[in-house]
UniProtKB/TrEMBL annotation:
<protein>
    <submittedName>
        <fullName>Undecaprenyl-phosphate glucose phosphotransferase</fullName>
    </submittedName>
</protein>
<dbReference type="Pfam" id="PF02397">
    <property type="entry name" value="Bac_transf"/>
</dbReference>
<keyword id="KW-0812">Transmembrane</keyword>
<feature type="transmembrane region" description="Helical">
    <location>
        <begin position="138"/>
        <end position="156"/>
    </location>
</feature>
<feature type="transmembrane region" description="Helical">
    <location>
        <begin position="35"/>
        <end position="60"/>
    </location>
</feature>
<comment type="similarity">
    <text>Belongs to the bacterial sugar transferase family.</text>
</comment>
<feature type="domain" description="Bacterial sugar transferase">
    <location>
        <begin position="304"/>
        <end position="487"/>
    </location>
</feature>
<feature type="transmembrane region" description="Helical">
    <location>
        <begin position="72"/>
        <end position="92"/>
    </location>
</feature>
<feature type="transmembrane region" description="Helical">
    <location>
        <begin position="306"/>
        <end position="330"/>
    </location>
</feature>
<dbReference type="GO" id="GO:0009242">
    <property type="term" value="P:colanic acid biosynthetic process"/>
</dbReference>
<keyword id="KW-0472">Membrane</keyword>
<keyword id="KW-1133">Transmembrane helix</keyword>
<dbReference type="InterPro" id="IPR017475">
    <property type="entry name" value="EPS_sugar_tfrase"/>
</dbReference>
<keyword id="KW-0270">Exopolysaccharide synthesis</keyword>
<dbReference type="InterPro" id="IPR017473">
    <property type="entry name" value="Undecaprenyl-P_gluc_Ptfrase"/>
</dbReference>
<dbReference type="GO" id="GO:0016020">
    <property type="term" value="C:membrane"/>
</dbReference>
<dbReference type="Pfam" id="PF13727">
    <property type="entry name" value="CoA_binding_3"/>
</dbReference>
């Protein structure tokens, strides 16, 4: 008999997805959300520099003086621009919400700029540079800049609104999960403006149970749907919109999402957003708390990706002769394709097609895959040499360039083995918290090739998880160097 609460949760989740159709414009988005703030700050900086030269030159011209000292004017403008950008950033002027609702910030722009003007006048007095920066030139500079800053903000606001209306601004892709009341108070524009999020799915949690000991089946069903949606849609985060007063419920939600490699963030609820809405001086009035961190930060992901791409290109340049020789040898040795494609689970258990040189007379990719054993009759003559030297894995460099794999990471297993060992080991799924690798920490520690016993797989998983929890670029480099030694020894490769 079907679980009615589970069906209710699923139907609520499906219905809620219909309300975020606008977020499906994601394929049209082009520019990162953060660029709006950088663009606005860059315009302000240029406006102040130009105004410093133009304003002081205008004053000199109208005073009958020779227009000169452009370098000094530009230097003073640079100092003023740095001071203003620091104060404007601290006041939240470059947050998306402030940019698109510029009327509310006009008066604050003038106030901050007048403070900068007073500081500039004081600095000119203390440095005794009145011969170059007279009171009249400073007043002209301050007045002209104030006018141009307002005009520039108006123009930037119009431009950003056009970009948003055309669907060309991209936030961080996120699946939103929360209570009905909290979700109702959040729309897609607010998520993009205040938190830099592009909503790709929205799921509503059912009302919590009276018991605080565990989540209901309906709640767990919605959370599982959220993790599935994040995997299928390529989300970068799972975001919660739940009242902060439900601390125990938040702890249970965080625990239930440990299997997902994505960071889980908690948005400020309606009460907290109301309290922070009128802050006059804050580094970041709108924020989200990361209650579960991903294994790698965004910067670490970027560093590892750059390392992978550069490393894969270098290896392809160095190893193209053996790759070509292997392809020719396979073609002449036995009938069948040169390359073998097999489905594997990648990052966040998302399936991809792994590439290998064909080394067997069969190409299994079904519900039952038998691991290769020593003296396996399925292995071809050429295949035996390729497997011993791990040359059969070299086509996976193209998987690395495509983004499905890394140079270093947990080795991807056959799908049937993922299911088999996932049912036996509670922490097996955590291997998918990073991209699979051509080589890994387990492989350079003696766990390369066939695993005959569950204990061997358990030890391999432990080594994989140690790698994930202790990742660094130096560790990746160390593993690559040790892989060369391991391949030369040809242990456990057949």
């Amino acid at each position: 008999m079907p679980n009615s609460s589970g069906e209710l949760a699923s139907s609520e989740a499906i219905l809620s997805r219909d309300s975020v159709g606008s977020a499906r414009k994601e394929s049209r988005l082009r520019f990162p959300h953060a660029m709006a703030g950088y663009f606005c700050a860059g315009v302000d900086f240029l406006v102040i520099i130009v105004s410093s030269i133009l304003g002081c030159s205008i004053y000199q011209a109208f005073s009958g003086l020779v227009v000169s000292n452009f370098d000094a004017f530009a230097l003073s403008g640079s100092v003023a621009a740095i001071l203003y950008l620091w104060m404007a950033h601290a006041a939240g002027f470059y947050q998306f919400g402030s940019i698109v609702s510029s009327h509310a910030v006009y008066r604050k722009i003038i106030n901050r700029w007048l403070v900068v003007g007073l500081l500039l006048a004081l600095l000119a007095f203390l440095l005794k540079v009145g011969a170059i920066f007279s009171r009249g030139s400073i007043v002209t500079f301050v007045a002209l800049t104030a006018t141009l800053l307002l005009v520039a903000r108006w123009a930037v606001t119009r431009a950003i609104k056009v970009v948003v209306s055309e669907g060309l601004l991209a936030g961080r892709r996120a699946v939103l999960v929360g209570s009905r009341d909290e979700l109702a108070a959040l729309d897609g524009e607010q998520l993009l403006g205040d938190f830099g999020l592009s909503e790709i799915d929205r799921l509503t949690l059912p009302s919590p149970s009276l018991s605080t000991m565990q989540l209901t089946r309906s709640e767990l069903s919605v959370l599982n749907l959220a993790m599935d949606s994040a995997r299928q849609e390529g989300a970068e985060a799972i975001v919660l919109a739940v009242s902060w007063s439900e601390s125990r419920r938040l702890e249970l939600i965080r625990e239930s999402m440990r299997a997902s490699p994505l960071p889980v963030q908690l948005l400020p609820d309606r009460i907290v957003r109301g309290l922070t809405r009128n802050l006059t001086f804050a580094w970041q009035p709108n924020f989200a708390i990361e209650i579960k961190r991903g294994p790698l930060s965004r910067v670490e992901h970027l560093l590892k990706r750059v390392f992978d791409v550069v490393g894969a290109l270098v290896l392809l340049l160095l190893l193209w002769p053996p790759i070509l020789i292997a392809a020719i040898a396979i073609k002449f040795d036995s009938a069948g394709p040169v390359l073998f494609r097999q489905r594997r689970n990648g990052f966040n258990a998302k399936q991809f097609r792994i590439l290998k040189f064909r080394t067997m007379t069969v190409t299994e990719d079904a519900d039952k895959v038998v691991q290769a054993t020593r003296f396996d009759r399925r292995v071809t003559r050429v295949g035996r040499h390729l497997r011993r030297l791990s040359v059969d894995e070299l086509p996976q460099l193209f998987n690395v360039l495509k983004g499905d794999m890394s140079l270093v990471g947990p080795r991807p297993h056959a799908l049937v083995h993922d299911i088999q060992y996932g049912e036996i080991m509670s922490d097996y799924a955590f291997r998918h918290h990073v991209k699979p690798g051509i080589t890994g920490w387990a492989q350079v520690n003696g766990f390369r090739g066939e695993t005959r016993q569950v204990e061997q797989m358990q030890r391999r998983v432990e080594l994989d998880l140690w790698y994930i929890n202790n990742w660094s670029l130096l560790l990746d480099l160390k593993i690559l160097l040790r892989t060369c030694i391991e391949v030369a020894s040809a242990r456990n490769a057949y």
